[in-house]
TrEMBL record:
GO terms for cellular component: extracellular matrix. This is Peptidase M10 metallopeptidase domain-containing protein. InterPro entries: MetalloPept_cat_dom_sf (IPR024079), Pept_M10_metallopeptidase (IPR001818). GO terms for molecular function: metalloendopeptidase activity; zinc ion binding. GO terms for biological process: proteolysis. Keywords: Hydrolase, Metal-binding, Protease, Zinc. Residues 158-186 form the Peptidase M10 metallopeptidase domain. It comes from Candidatus Giovannonibacteria bacterium RIFCSPLOWO2_01_FULL_45_34.
């Protein structure tokens, strides 16, 4: 009798969970419905980053995108970047087309160089990453120094930053929700996925959403 009562109670708990807001079951993606995106990984010649660091970042971010949005990122090209990482906006398409493959939809430049810019109040602020949606180019600065840093949710900071920058390529906007990895200052977020980020990433393709 006690056993039957226990399973009845357990069934109620499961039903209640399924009808809680935001508690919908995670969709299981299979190899047949996963989008694979080739990435060109570029290591700054003047201030290089240990290759194992940025490969690990890409693998971790790919796992999250595959789980939450059905998208897998794979390193298609790994090469040296000989351009100037201090020039913004990041419009390197003319240069990168001779380095990256045509099938590489995303180009990510990693550098140990730091980047600062002046604020209106006279102070300077460090730029950790920058994305140019028109050319699908991302630059991640000061990678070596942030390799072990964490966001407020205890997640690897650089992984949260790359999740954030890649999402911009799909047209995902910033949010004031500090739970989301799309909070403007990613290091101050909890690095979590939100239903809105998932929705936009699933329906858009890189660059095609730009009008």
């Amino acid at each position: 009798m006690k056993i039957a009562r226990f399973f009845a109670y357990l069934t109620v708990l499961i039903v209640l969970f399924l009808f809680l807001p935001g508690a919908s079951p995670q969709k299981a993606y299979t190899s047949s419905n996963i989008r694979t995106i080739s990435v060109c990984l570029l290591n700054d010649k003047e201030s290089p980053v240990n290759e194992s660091i940025f490969r690990k970042i890409l693998v971790s971010v790919s796992c999250e995108y595959e789980k939450n949005a059905g998208i897998r990122f794979e390193a298609g090209t790994v090469a040296v970047f000989s351009g100037n990482t201090g020039i913004l906006p990041v419009n390197y398409e003319r240069y990168l087309k001779y380095v990256c493959r045509l099938t590489d939809e995303v180009r990510i430049i990693f550098t140990s160089e730091s980047m600062e810019f002046p604020r209106p109040d006279g102070k300077t602020e460090e730029l950790v990453a920058h994305t140019d949606e028109d050319t699908a180019v991302i630059i991640m600065y000061n990678v070596g120094n942030y390799a072990r840093a964490l966001d407020w949710g205890g997640n690897p900071f650089l992984e949260t930053v790359l999740k954030h920058e890649i999402a911009h390529l799909f047209g995902v906007d910033h949010t004031e929700d500090k739970n989301s990895f799309m909070y403007p200052q990613a290091n101050l977020s909890l690095g979590r996925w939100t239903s809105e980020a998932e929705r936009v990433i699933k329906i858009n393709k890189i660059r095609e959403w730009i009008k």
